[in-house]
Design brief:
Elements (H helix, E strand, L loop, with lengths): L14 H8 L6 H22 L40 E4 L9 H5 L4 E9 L3 E11 H7 L8 E6 L4 E5 H5 L4 E6 L2 E2 L9 E3 L12 E7 L19
Parallel strand pairs: 1-9
Antiparallel strand pairs: 2-3, 3-6, 4-5, 4-9, 6-7, 6-8
Helix pairs in contact: 1-2
Bound molecules: ligand MTE and molybdenum atom.
Ligand MTE binds next to loops.
Length: 234
C-alpha cells in the first residue's frame, strides 16, 4: 500500500464544501488536515452506529474462490515473518479471564467453519478467497474475554497492529483464519493465522497475529496512523 492515494471521505463532501467548512483555503494544509481528520472521526462514529451485528457480507460458491491469492503488505513476500510452531505462542492481554498463551496446535484444534468472501483492498483491488478457522467470537468466549469491553486489539509479528470494535469482533463472519483455499495458511498470508473480517477493508485484517487484547481504549491501526479511516467498513 502506498501513501500516494490520500484517504477519501465517503458521503460526497466536495472540496468546495470542505473549504467552506474549514473556513480557509486549501493551501492552508494543516487546518485542512485537521478538518479532514475530524470528519474522518465523525465518519467512524456514523459507520459504527449503522453497522448491524447481523449484517452479513456476501458469501460465494466455493468454485469462485481464487486459489493463487494476491499477496499484500508494505514489504515484499520474501520479507514476511517466518513463525514456527515450536516457538510461537499467542499472547492474551487486557480484559480476559484466562490469559494462558496458546500454541499453534491448540489453536488449530479449535472447531472451524469456512467462508468464501471478497477481500477488498483500499488500494483498489479485490479478490474472492476461501478462509477457514474459528469464529473470533467463540475464541473470545472460550478465554473469558469481557465482551462488554469496547474493542479488541491485535499485534503482529511484522510490527503491524490493528483493532476493531466489539460488535465487529463478535460478528459471525469474523474469523481467526487458519486456512486459505483449504491449505494451512501459507507463511506470506499470515501463518499461523490472520483475522479475517469480510465486513472490513483488507488492511483491517491483520496477519501473523501474535497478541490479542481486550480494552476500552480504541486500539491504533497501522494504516489509520498513516491517514486511513479507522472503521473502514465495506
Ligand atoms: N501483519 C500484517 N497484516 C496485514 C498487512 C501487513 O502489512 N501486515 N497488510 C494488510 C493489507 S493492506 C492487506 S490488503 C491484506 C493482504 O492480505 P493477503 O496478503 O492475504 O492478500 O493484509 C492486511 N494485513
Ligand atoms: Mo490492503
Amino acid at each position: 500500500m502506498t501513501l500516494a492515494r490520500r484517504p477519501m471521505l465517503r458521503g460526497g463532501l466536495s472540496l468546495g464544501a470542505l473549504t467552506l467548512l474549514a473556513g480557509c483555503d486549501l493551501s492552508d494544509h494543516d487546518s485542512v488536515q485537521r478538518v479532514l481528520a475530524r470528519f474522518s472521526q465523525w465518519n467512524d462514529k456514523v459507520q459504527a452506529a449503522i453497522f448491524g451485528r447481523s449484517r452479513l457480507a456476501p458469501e460465494f460458491p466455493d468454485a469462485m474462490a481464487v486459489k493463487d491469492f494476491r499477496y499484500n503488505a508494505w514489504y515484499g513476500p520474501e520479507k514476511a515473518p517466518r513463525l514456527n510452531s515450536a516457538d510461537y505462542r499467542l499472547q492474551l492481554a487486557g480484559r480476559i479471564d484466562n490469559k494462558r498463551p496458546w500454541t499453534i496446535d491448540d489453536l488449530y484444534a479449535l472447531p472451524q467453519v469456512s467462508q468464501v468472501t471478497r477481500h477488498v483492498c483500499v488500494e483498489g483491488w479485490s479478490m474472492i478467497g476461501k478462509w477457514s478457522g474459528t469464529p473470533l467470537r467463540s475464541f473470545l468466549e472460550r478465554i473469558g474475554a469481557d465482551t462488554t469491553a469496547r474493542y479488541v486489539g491485535f499485534e503482529c509479528a511484522d510490527g503491524y497492529y490493528e483493532g476493531i470494535d466489539m460488535p465487529t469482533a463478535l460478528h459471525p463472519q469474523t474469523l481467526m483464519a487458519f486456512r486459505l483455499s483449504d491449505e494451512i495458511l501459507p507463511q506470506k498470508y499470515g501463518y499461523p493465522f490472520k483475522i479475517r473480517i469480510p465486513t472490513k477493508l483488507g488492511f483491517k485484517n491483520p496477519k501473523f497475529v501474535t497478541a490479542i487484547y481486550v480494552t476500552d481504549k480504541q486500539p491504533r491501526g497501522y494504516w489509520t496512523d498513516r491517514g486511513y479511516n479507522w472503521f473502514s467498513g465495506i
